[in-house]
Amino acid sequence: MNERIHSQDGRYLTFALGKGRLADKTLELLEKTGITCEEMKDKGSRKLVFVNEELKLRFFLAKGPDVPTYVEYGAADIGVVGKDTIMEENRRVYEVLDLGFGKCRMCVCGPEGARELLKHHEMIRVASKYPNIAKDYFYNKKHQTVDIIKLNGSVELGPIVELSDVIVDIVETGSTLRENGLDVLEEICPLSARMIVNQVSMQMQTERIKKLIQDLREHI
Ligand code: PRP
């Protein structure tokens, strides 16, 4: 194991991981393939970059929406982030692997009464943390002109306080919707954690990255 994940030329392979549960799950998966980063397990540490000298690997944690940015610019060779963020940020990166965890759905949600507004292609207000995904869905797929309002969290408030008619948001267990009297009205797409790769790194470190993808695939 790991014979080719080792650097051939002393170069580091750098990973940007979206902070939080995705990062923990990613480290668990990497560990199964023999890649560990002991330094990262110290939760009390304020360190930002962690290194595995033996395998010439570096890891850093970043805010989810920043992960595709680090990868596009080559500050990280590899990133792990949710499909929602990949779609919203729309960066020039290769999406190479579905990691199979962090499964949820991007949906249009709202009170039952809003179903009719969607059906009849009315001019409605849509609140979302994902304005690009909302725009693409309503403008390009449904050909419906809507007013999109960007929010930064607790998006379910939108229809409750009548800021918007519906929301475009992530649904995992559905409990946030249920507890607030909202429903899934339309499903946009399934989501999960994905591995993304810098386009130049893919050419320059092909063997090493391919071996990593293959090892991960065997443990998903
Ligand atoms: C996400 C999402 C929903 C909720 C869905 O919010 O925006 O609000 O999780 O999960 P559920 O279907 O299991 O209830 P998050 O917790 O990330 O916080 P936010 O509302 O501040 O974005």
As a percent range, the share of strand residues is 25-35%
Percent range for helical residues? 25-40%
What binds here, in terms of ligands, is: 1-O-pyrophosphono-5-O-phosphono-alpha-D-ribofuranose
- How far apart the termini lie comes to 16 Å
Strand order of the largest sheet: 2-3-1-4-11-5
Give Rg in angstroms.
20 Å
Shape, principal axes of CA atoms: elongated
E-strand count: 11
Order of helices and strands: EHEEHEHEEHEHEHEHEEHH
- Helix segment count? 9
Say what oligomer this is: single chain
- How does the helix and strand content classify structurally? alpha/beta
Q: Regions with pLDDT < 50 over 5+ consecutive residues?
A: none
- Mean pLDDT, to the nearest integer, reads 94
Largest sheet: 6 strands, mixed
What's the layout of helices and strands?
Elements: E1 13-18, H1 21-32, E2 49-52, E3 57-62, H2 67-72, E4 78-82, H3 83-89, E5 94-98, E6 104-110, H4 114-119, E7 125-128, H5 131-141, E8 147-150, H6 157-160, E9 166-171, H7 175-179, E10 183-191, E11 193-197, H8 199-204, H9 206-219
Parallel strand pairs: 1-3, 1-4, 7-8, 7-9
Antiparallel strand pairs: 2-3, 4-11, 5-11, 6-9, 6-10
The structure holds 1-O-pyrophosphono-5-O-phosphono-alpha-D-ribofuranose (PRP).
1-O-pyrophosphono-5-O-phosphono-alpha-D-ribofuranose (PRP) is lined by residues 129, 153-156, 169-176.
